Fold each of these.
Amino acid sequence: MQDHTDLSWEWVIGLEVHTHLKTESKLFSPAPVVYGAEPNHAVHPIDLALPGVLPVLNERVVELAIRLGLAIHGTVNPVSVFARKNYFYPDLPKGYQISQFEDPIVSDGWLEIEPEVRGQAKKKAAAGGGGRRRIGITRAHIEEDAGKSIHDVAIAGREDSCIDLNRAGVPLLEIVSEPDMRTAAEASAYLRALRSILRYIGVSDADMEKGQFRCDANVSVRPRGSRELGTRTEIKNLNSFVHVEEAIEAEARRQIELIEDGGTVVQATMGFDPVRRRTSVQRLKENSDDYRYFPDPDLIPLRIEADRIEAVRASLPELPDEKRSRFGSEYGLSDYDAGVLTANRELAAFFEETAKACGSPKAAANWLTRDLLRELRERDVELEETSLTPAILASLIRLVEDGRLTARSAAELFPDLVSDGGDPEVLMRERGLEAVSDAGAIDGLVDQVVEAHPDVVQQIREGDDKPLNFLMGKVMQASRGKAVPAQVRKTLIARIRS
Amino acid sequence: MSRIEPSDVARVATLARLALSQDEIAAMTRDLEQMLDYVAALDRLDTQDVEPTAHSFELPTPLRPDRAVPPLDPEIALGNAPEREGTAFLVPKVLEEGG
Amino acid sequence: MAKADSLLAGDLSDLRGALDRRDCSAVELVQASLDAMDARADLAAIVFRRDEAALTEAEAADERIASGKPASPLDGLPVVLKDNIVQAGEPATCASRILEGYVSPFDSGVVERLQRAGAIVVGRANLDEFAMGSSTENSIHGPSRNPWDPERACGGSSGGSAAAVAAGLVPLAFGSDTGGSIRQPASFCGVVGFKPTYGRVSRWGLVAYASSLDQIGPFARRVADCALALEAVGGHDDRDSTSLPEVVPPLRSRLDGDVSGLVVGLPKEYFAPEGAQPGVLARVREAIGVLEGEGVRFVEISLPHTAYTIATYYIIATAEASSNLARFDGVRYGRRAEHPKDLLDLYERSRSEGFGAEVKRRILLGTYVLSAGYYDAYYVKAQKVRTLIRRDFEAAFGECDAILTPTTPETAFALGAKAGDPLSMYLSDVYTVSANLAGLPALSVPCGFVDGMPVGLQLLGKPLDEATILRIGDAFERRTDHHRQSPPGPPGSPGTD
């Protein structure tokens, strides 16, 4: 965690994310995109760069890139150009990567983040309506992934590497942020927000474990108040949110220590050792990094007509931040609830259906953000994997709202509804959980409790209301949670005051 | 006049992954210098306001529908491999990550 | 067999007629072609042969012809491909050590269309390594020789294809033209060579030299045969992003000999007396006279940026080549250096041992012009001059329907004459590179001889307008007999004259 007592340094963090696009075939070849296949079982002559092959752009990739561009409020450029980035590497069959360099498909976007805040800051943020920040996105461009080198295979007594080109040519978007983040937590919040959007709009599954969502972090530090950027380093291939945070922390500290000891930061590519939580120089950025970019003569510049962009716009789902503000105005939800419910497209839809069916958006929001998310967390499952439906939840809420089921009984039924579904009303009857609202029955229970605790009653009569809750609890207990609390309270007060 | 040094040729040769002998470097330095002197003629043209041409004509951007075809039989994919292990291509140990 | 043998030296319509009349069979024709290859092994024009497969395919063609259903006018006819146009199951060395032993697992677009048309690929023709050269001397298969004089070069880089047609090994061959690599050898060997508009013929399966300039085209003994060849192999291919969407119009039906009223431009820069051999200019001027007699009106035009074409071409072509040839790394296919001590060594030695000097020279130049600090000064500059060159032609075509020039400044030079002087070799492309830079269709047609060596005239057309230059070339042929001249037979053969 960033040491907030160290006020003399400011961290400057920019992130480059590579995300696999959700397509059936590769970027420039019709080979299937598959994960976990045997080496070289998902390749086409184009992926092997056999003599005489040529690339043709996958139309779906263009659509997905436009989707992302619109979702991050970016400009979808009418003309973008594919360029060759030339370097030799065994997992790069052509000796160049087809990417976009000077003219990317998307530029100048942004997205909002809400860093996960801790301790003191949390209360402050909650009170102040949130620490939401806008992070600039410089550009997003289309490029192809490389294959994989599999190391450490000892063959015939010498160490060799195996080359698997299944991944070569898989379409990627590289999304480059502005150096707008100031803490590791912000960086992590940006990544989560970006991943959530990518999934929301169906652009990428962004599964980090499958290597579909990879992150490089650019880190520099500068004296607080300075406007100049310090020399930055790049930490490559961070493959979990935790690593991103830890690596940034470690690297910023390394730089600060270095400078404070009189050293200077040099441009370098850093590796992160998650076990020791340390970054170390992997490779200095040298002048020999001369990629000789030039427009790929095998491809025509990508021209995107305005109506194509509009068609994509029309097909876009409501975006999380749009939805979030609508949830606030339309359903009167708190900013926090709206944020939680809109972080996931399925959850948002579930909420809306439930709210409509039961007529009580706030109750629906409470059930979902509190009870449901806890269940999902505990069971480590996704919403779709449960048996709960909006109709079931709405019916449960109505039972509570109508006073036929107490909140406590409802909470008792809920886990079973999540596991097995079913009609809450039927379940309630079967288990004898119907709320006791019958005046006679409640009167009887109240009488019992009042008689059993004369001293407490006396205390209340003398003006101390505090023990009232104690008596409430006793009555509820006696009803096995089925008595309607409001009615109990009313009856209890009337009985004591009488 | 373009002055090109043997060290320039050596640098370019490394970028192009060509190992050249000293004699080859000397010869290539001469040839490259001659070519660069020749192409320096282009500097006489004022091209300030001229758009570059990448292709002779403007063509519509060709797009391919996102449909996969069955992949190449791995035995064919590996058919020309100088060295292989199973269905992977084999190379001397790869040390660092690529660009 | 004698019949088939003599037919091979004829044109495609003669051959078609003979096959359809059953004067000879496709099997006989293919066998005659294979025999002729044996007889002219001295030319080193053919580097791989498909004897068995070709004969089998010929039998199938004979069956189609016998049933009265030939697949196309090319059904049963033997053709050769430059060894940089891939065919499934066949080698494609590109005349380079680095591709020794390589077998392509897939067909080029051209091969697919030829097979659909029933044409039979009998062999693969020699070339300059990776199509880089103007003499077909830069080849692991040794230099090809000019059938008109074996001590002279057949031109390049598609020299093997040109020599094969000139020597009567096949009636039709395919090559690739990046800066004149079809037209220059056609001119040197006294055959018709045709580079269609950029994007007309699919580049799928053509091993790339310079992607924005490369174009496949035919060699034949008659202009009409080149028209037929383009009808067969031209047209859009989804696998090539630079393939033109336009349909190839009927071409042969336009070859009616009538060229009266056409306006043809003569660019003064191409007729400068110091630019070309006097004999070459004389033959071309005679040809102009012939066409004038047919009612063609000639006008002088100017292509002001002509002096910059070679420089522009060599920057763009080598830059693209340096990147296109990066895939030859000894990892997935092709030649790998023995016992590499590490990865860098594998790359450097595989490539250094695998590529010849000219390829290395162009890779180095191309890498240099793209490298940091030089990109704008060379590559971007050349692309801008390319725009100026293109505009020259746009302006010129406002005044004329086609442009006529010599194809080359001189006739075939002696083998080895330019080997030590790369720049002078590059300069021999001076009349041909502009068509590639501007993407124009261009045709070289035999127009006579200087000291027993053939001379070619070049016709340049508007983009997509192959029809007009084919029409002019065909009309010229109808009035002349240069295309009927045959080179001498193999050394020591009887009856050569």
Amino acid sequence: MSEALLDIKDLTIEFGSGSQPLRVVDNISFAVSLGETVGIVGESGSGKSMTALSVLRLVPEAARVSGQIIFEGRDLLKLPKREMPAIRGKEIGMIFQEPMSSLNPLMTIGDQIDEAIRLHEDIPAPERRKRVLALLRLVGMPDPENRLSAYPDQFSGGMRQRVMAAIAMACNPKLLIADEPTTALDVTIQAQVLAMMLDIRARFNSSILLITHDLGVVAEICERVVVMYAGRILEDADARSLFSNARHPYTQGLLRSVPTLNDTRKRLYQIPGSVPPAGTIKAGCPFRPRCSVRMERCAVEMPPLRTYDPGHRVACWATAEAAA
Amino acid sequence: MARYLFFRLLDMVPTVFLVLTMVFIAMRILPGDPALVALGPNADGGQLEAFREKMGLNEPLGLQYVTFLGNAVRFDFGHSLMSDVPIGTLIANNLPHTIYLTIASVVLGLVMGIPFGVYAATQRNKLPDSALRIYSLIGYAIPDFYLAAVLLIVFSLNLGWFPINGEGSGFWDGLHHIFLPALTLAMLKSAFLGRLTRTSLLEVLGRDYVRTARAKGARESRVIYRHALRNAMLPLSTGIGISILATLSGSVAIELVFNRPGIGRLLINAIQERDYPVIQAGVMMFAFFVILVNLAMDIVYLIADPRIRMKS
């Protein structure tokens, strides 16, 4: 495996104070290598978006973040606050989930992309304009010359997400974080945006950290997958072995819940129960209440992430017992 | 855009018409005989009759109404009963002072209120935020005439920094004279606008596009002034409109306390002297002022917000 570009170690994010803080991300560790595309999969409330935001230190002010987020050898969490803007947009670009509300309604598309360049690079306006046009072409915007002076409200969700991608890629960042980039879009537009991301990856050779709840999206573009549940990592594997040989009962359940075209069953499988609200699981494995293979030990002690095959980590007592 | 403006102006016609009609009715249903009130109890029958004839009060009501409308449209408000000066002249002499006071107090109020609101929003729940809360509370609670008197006593009578009354002559002297009256209104405006700025800015700071600006690498000052405040100004401009209109009621007291010429003082004097045509004209001026400020605010919205511009 090549050198890690982003190495997250023991990341914990908590809200509230006193003896009972709300822990939305609980002691997670994973890495993204140069040029690698890693997907974080999880349901709403699994802490995946908070994890993504914490890399750029954009979590809400009330959140307490501990652990290490090492990017190119520097711990971003230890960096003085005033040094973060130089990293945001320049070294790490980010695309958000809500294309409809993530662009400033009072600024033209051209100005918003241009700003992303101007904030980090001192180049004359005509050259910036050329770069903006090139970016718009890259993200598949038709007729970019005439779109520069348009406002976000004149665009559809898919087009706005393309503009967001152009902003994120404006300074050719080493890492692109995409937080549910396709969730708010129609299925056909989703496919277009995914194709665009594959295109971006091919041209820039950027690493991508993709946050999603959609296993289809993961299968499409990710090389490695981190499965999160209630703030913890339950499984971390390369995409191929995850889809062919999922070891955690939660991941297995997720894969069984994906509809297929030649499915003859009347009802789609679903994992019983729902994700526990953050902070309600005090001890043991957070998936235990919904798990079909739970054991007594699961209620007492959170299973550690154990490496099985090279690069395949699973946090489950039942898996450990089966392997032993 | 031109089309929108045309229809917006067309929209004003019924409003103006309604205002004129209400003024006409109000003046006619007031108790008492205008002639008797105007000439006093010592006037004899002949004088009263001559007065009614002169003012057209003997005409049928419908004809009076039409004449009234016709004169109003031509900005002919008749003559003052007390001084016999044409009302157009009275307004021309007084209106500029009120407009001047309005502009000075609004500019000062914005300069004081908006930065205070921004500072409070960025220091939420800290000392500056509490300071703004207390300042606003006092601003909401204190009557304008009282604040005017306090400022007058402190800065003019005791410290002697500012003239006690009058409007001054020349630009700089005028500015010296207008400072305290404008400050009085501006303090009340900034209490309102500061609070409003804080609220709208906090709301905008939670928006997704503000997060996008931060994710691009914009520094906090740029995030606030270039992205957030511009968006917060939209709801704020409605508040500024309200605040401009509040100058009208404010000017009545302020012009009296500081003994400045202006529409407010003209109106108060006219009411004291039962100078009906002047009251009528003064009320209409205030109504037109409200209509014009509303129009101006609509145009500001149109210029500032591309979403509204696109729709119209």
